[in-house]
Amino acid sequence: MTRKPSGASWQGFTPGEAALLDRLDFYGNNGWSRTPQLESLMPGLLAECEQAGLPLERVKAALASVGYSKDALHQIDRWESKRTTGKFGP
Questions:
Q1: What is residue 4's predicted lDDT score, i.e. its pLDDT?
Q2: Does 10 fall in a domain?
Q3: In angstroms, what is the C-alpha Rg of the chain?
Q4: Domain containing residue 46
Q5: Number of folded domains in the chain?
Q6: CA atoms within 13 A on the CB side of 44
Q7: Residue 3 lies in a domain
């Protein structure tokens, strides 16, 4: 499990973007594994990021900067696939 270190901030992000990243960080406490709870939350949260002008690659770079692994970030790609195609990606 990776989480943003206590007291760390999202450098270079607006307060609104940082709030979205904090939510992603919170939901990432289990590596964004596919659960019924995340099925209802992640597609909407990723859509909020996009609407806020926060592209997926920037989201993943921010999460990687606080220690999320390549495998964990792959889950974000899978959730983005669910959001955009309706199918959970490979």
A1: 82
A2: no
A3: 12
A4: 15-85
A5: 1
A6: 7
A7: no
Whether the Cβ atoms of residue 32 and residue 79 lie closer than 8 Å to each other: yes
Cβ(66)–Cβ(1) under 8 Å? no
Q: Where residue 12 falls among pLDDT bands split at 50, 70, 90?
A: very high
CB neighbours of residue 76 within 10 Å: 21
- Note whether residue 1 is domain-resident: no
HSE-CB for 52 with a 13 A CA cutoff: 19
pLDDT digits (tens, 9 = 90+) for 13-70: 999 999 999 999 999 888 898 999 999 999 999 999 999 999 999 999 999 999 899 9
* pTM assigned to the model: 0.91
Angle between helices 36-51 and 15-27 (to 10 degrees): 160
Q: CA 37, CA 15: separation in Å to the nearest integer?
A: 25
Residue 25 lies in a domain: yes
